[in-house]
TrEMBL record:
Keywords: Acyltransferase, Amino-acid biosynthesis, Branched-chain amino acid biosynthesis, Cytoplasm, Leucine biosynthesis, Manganese, Metal-binding, Transferase. Pathway: Amino-acid biosynthesis; L-leucine biosynthesis; L-leucine from 3-methyl-2-oxobutanoate: step 1/4. Residues 7-269 form the Pyruvate carboxyltransferase domain. This is 2-isopropylmalate synthase. It comes from Marinobacter suaedae. The gene is leuA.
Amino acid sequence: MSTNEHLVVFDTTLRDGEQSPGATMNKAEKLRIAKALEKLRVDVIEAGFAIASQGDFEAVKAIAESIKESTVCSLARALDKDIDRAAEAIRPAAKGRIHTFIATSPIHMRHKLQMEPDEVVEQAVRAVKRARNHVEDVEFSCEDAGRSELDFLCRIIEAAIDAGARTINIPDTVGYAIPEQFGETIGQLMSRIPNADKAIFSVHCHNDLGLAVANSLAAVSHGARQVECTINGLGERAGNASLEEIVMAVRTRQDLFHIDTGIDTSHIVPASRLVSTITGFPVQPNKAIVGANAFAHESGIHQDGVLKHRETYEIMRAEDVGWHTNSLVLGKHSGRNAFRTRLLELGIQFETETELNEAFTRFKALADLKHEIFDEDLQAIASDTRQKEDVGRYGLVCMRVCSETGVIPKAELTLTVDGKEHKVEAEGSGPVDATFKAIESLVDSGCNLQLYSVNNITSGTDAQGEVTVRLERGGRIVNGVGSDTDIIIASAKAYIEALNLISSGGIRQHPQVSDV
């Protein structure tokens, strides 16, 4: 494809997506998602915010070392220390990018930055030039561009391009824009800025009004050639523009857009499920493209139409986005090498043989319970194994739960706290309530339970249940995820994982908290 025909897909699941409350990922999890994004053929992977924490820096660096096909990017405020840290993190990348930003709206300049417009332009230019000293590929973003004055945007963008920025991002940071107005803004910027032809114009839309995808597509129709998005629309507050929706909208409506992405759409659903499993954010059934009901038909009229001719009620083929029965033809007699090979095909690689052996043991145990093992089961096994390897303060040894009609449910658990076993029990309104109360009778965490969610990993009554538990304490929010064919055991695992996260004390700095 020539530049004019290609829409650059910039995925920020690992940066902006991770800013969803409770969605923080460790380095191994980020690397798994990055490899899935590379398999998707994402053009640019924003791997994180290198200055935010040592953990984020190490994750960006590990991704830069591992990813060969996609450009690896790190975010940086328009500060020398941010830019230098980002450059250090992406240095091993085959293709690296520094993405620097500064706020441009009157409300942000006045109340957050406490800077005059002239100072903001000066700092932006200095940041872009410093980034260009490290890499050729520099992106500049006007934070809160959706509420910025058009004349000032023209001024600062022209200066940033002159300083060496080759991608200019126009973010609707707070989800304030309306499609017709936002598209018109992009068109005016590209026509009014004298050197606009020297840069690719990009958009980064938030979903506060449910318009992120619509705003992004409106911008594309007015000349934007990069879209920043996330898997499942993950992101701060109401989320970001959804990668799968943008890609399939452009692919399906070629009659309007006359461009396409390089995305291998057959990997969309597996990537969606991987992100959901790792973050603990389930995908709603009616979510476009990747929701369980996206290609399901209940109406008799619809069913009849689809049976006669698929296109009567389906504008896409389910197979094209990865909806197919992808079962692993392995059982309890299968060998370790076949198991390892399939994991590698899914982008799952353990750092030690001990971890692989533990995962293989779990696979064998699950094969005894289930007739078919699906790729989603393997992803859950991998996540569960890593959780066990990352031993926290609390652990589950065994449990027994009694639930009977007319009898108050009771849970008896053996837990470890700092390696020492304790037996606890409690009654509750249901088996899960009793289990959580039994755990709290020992740990007394002081946490508030904000979310309890159960989802089936695959179909069938023998499917593993995946439980997400969201806890809050002192303003800090974490998600714990547990999986098992028994949802009560999965619930206990999830609650204990959340407790380990909340007690670890490693609070990640919010990437967009500025200290200028």
